[in-house]
Protein 1
Amino acid sequence: MFELLGVSPQALFGQLLLGLINGAFYAMLSLGLAVIFGMLNVVNFAHGALYMTGAFVAWLLLEFLGVGYWPALLIAPLAVAVLGIAIERTMLRWLYKLDHLYGLLLTFGLALIVEGLFRNEYGSSGQPYQIPETLQGGQNLGFMFLPNYRAWVVVASLAICLGTWYTIERTKLGAYLRAATENPALVQAFGINVPRLLTFTYAGGVALAALAGVMAAPMVNVSPQMGSSLIIIVFAVVVIGGMGSILGSIVTGFGLGVIEGLTKVFFPEASNTVIFVIMAIVLLIKPAGLFGRAA
């Protein structure tokens, strides 16, 4: 069968694995974007810069304090969440009732500032980050070699995405969040601090980006450009899934990662544009996105 397709099993399954890994990061980043847009009505263009910040926090913890990968998975998202709280309270909360363009321009400017600060301090070449000892090596499956760390990334990101979806769609906290976006005055009347709820929503969204950055650090050089090279694709994923759709971000993130991986096998020339072609087709057929609801 593989001979008829003109590819080896190793190449096909290898690209499928890479597609799943890329899809894992697409899903986690687009999920954070969807949460922020769905709850706060802000197009957060600083998401890629905060993803990069999470990776740099993990690298700094290891380089200067000797704090390894596992503690960094908790510390880095918390540190970026604190930064997110500062951003939301000092800047974003004044834009909620304005046009989306104002939030996009503000967060785009923030992304340029954060990226510039890290580039001036650490350069553009990137810093290596070692895979934790417990996840080094891999498993020989016969048809391919499966690195332990890459398997961990796929499984962990899927669990994080599904956990976030369950929290927002199936818990009382999620119900409060959804209600606060639709009728904040009514929710406030029930004694719930809506501004604080929105602040922590933004903090949670950027913490997801930072967590993805820590998970990506052992597979790529930690560099100031690592977020800017990914954020455009992630925005395309969000548009395809539906702006603000939690389930849409997860499904389209993983699905588009796999499609991109398969395209690299059968039609490599289109691998860099296939997601944008799909986005154009989806917008023509269903402008609200696959899982989005028309305004």
Note: The chain is about 70% helix and 0% strand.
Protein 2
Amino acid sequence: MRRNKSSLSEAQSYKEMGEFWANHDLTDYWDQTKAVEFEVEIESEATYFPVETNLSAELVSLAKRRGVSPETLLNLWIQEKVKEEAAAE
């Protein structure tokens, strides 16, 4: 990965980049941008599981406090638990 993650913000991390763009407007830097072309291939699959209503509400609340989506938080927790279980076998 490049040393600077962004040429405009000169950020060294994604957090710094986020902080920069939270306080700046792209239109102020538009003349420093260039057109690019890229392809995105998304091959994700979703599986749905029922979650109790009160548990779902708690998940939404916790995710909001952490600044992530409930889906992201739930997936992170499941990944952690699956790794723990696999290590215990």
Note: The radius of gyration is 19 Å.
